[in-house]
Design a protein that fits this description.
The protein is mostly helical. It contains ten helices and no strands. Helix 6 runs antiparallel to helix 7. The chain is elongated.
C-alpha cells in the first residue's frame, strides 16, 4: 500500500466483500461465481500485508474449496497459500493430491514438478523429485515434445544456476538435458525452443 488512503480503500473493500458473503444465497450460477470471486479476493488479502494472517486466509480458502471441491484452481490457491506462509509439507501434500486425483492431466503433474523445483527446503530445491515428476508428465503425452523440452529446461537451469554443482556434474546434467532435447526434436524437428536449449546445454558443457 502506498498511502493511508490506500489502507482506507482496502478496509472498505474488505467490508464490502464480507457483506457480499453474508447476503449471497448462492442459488444461481451467477451468484455462485460472485461467491467464488469474493472468497478468492479475501484469501488473497489476508495472505499479504498489511492484513497478513494465516488462520483468516485459510478460513476463506477452506470455504472456497468446500464450495467447489472438484475445482483444481481452488486447490492450487490453497497450495499457494501454504507456500506463502512457508507451510511446505502441507503445500506438498496438496500438490500431490491434485496430481494423484488428476493422474492423466499434464498440467497437474507439471505444477507438482514446478513446486519441487522451488528452493523451499532449507534453501534448496528437490531436483530429483522434480525430474521424476516431469518424466511422469512426459509419459502422459508421449507425442508432445513440450514434455521433454520442459525436462531439458530443468536440467539446464540446474547446471547453469546451481553454484554447488561441480564441472563434472554440470556435464552430466547437460547430457541428460540434451537427451531430452533430442527426444523433443525427434517429434518436432523445427521446435524452436528445443533448438535454442540445445545450444544453451552445449554451452554449459
Amino acid at each position: 500500500l502506498q498511502s493511508p488512503l490506500d489502507l482506507v480503500e482496502l478496509e472498505k473493500a474488505i467490508a464490502a466483500y464480507k457483506k457480499s458473503l453474508e447476503i449471497n444465497s448462492g442459488k444461481t450460477e451467477n451468484l455462485r461465481k460472485v461467491k467464488v470471486n469474493t472468497l478468492g479476493a479475501l484469501t488473497a488479502i489476508y495472505s499479504d500485508e498489511p492484513y497478513r494472517d494465516f488462520d483468516t486466509a485459510l478460513k476463506y480458502a477452506q470455504e472456497l474449496v468446500a464450495d467447489n471441491p472438484n475445482d483444481a484452481k481452488n486447490l492450487y490457491a490453497m497450495a499457494n497459500l501454504y507456500e506463502k506462509f512457508n507451510r511446505v509439507q502441507e503445500a506438498e501434500e496438496l500438490y500431490k493430491k491434485i496430481a494423484d486425483t488428476n493422474p492423466n492431466d499434464p498440467k497437474a503433474c507439471g505444477a507438482l514438478a514446478a513446486f519441487y523445483n522451488k528452493p523451499l527446503w532449507q534453501g534448496r530445491a528437490k531436483f530429483e523429485e522434480a525430474i521424476a515428476t516431469l518424466e511422469r508428465c512426459a509419459s502422459l503425452a508421449p507425442d508432445d515434445p513440450g514434455g521433454y523440452q520442459k525436462i531439458a529446461g530443468f536440467y539446464w537451469d540446474k547446471a547453469y544456476r546451481d553454484p554447488l554443482v561441480s564441472d563434472e556434474q554440470k556435464n552430466q546434467l547437460a547430457d541428460k538435458g540434451l537427451e531430452n532435447v533430442d527426444k523433443a526434436l525427434k517429434i518436432k524437428p523445427d521446435y524452436f525452443e528445443a533448438i535454442i536449449y540445445k545450444g544453451l546445454l552445449y554451452r554449459v558443457k
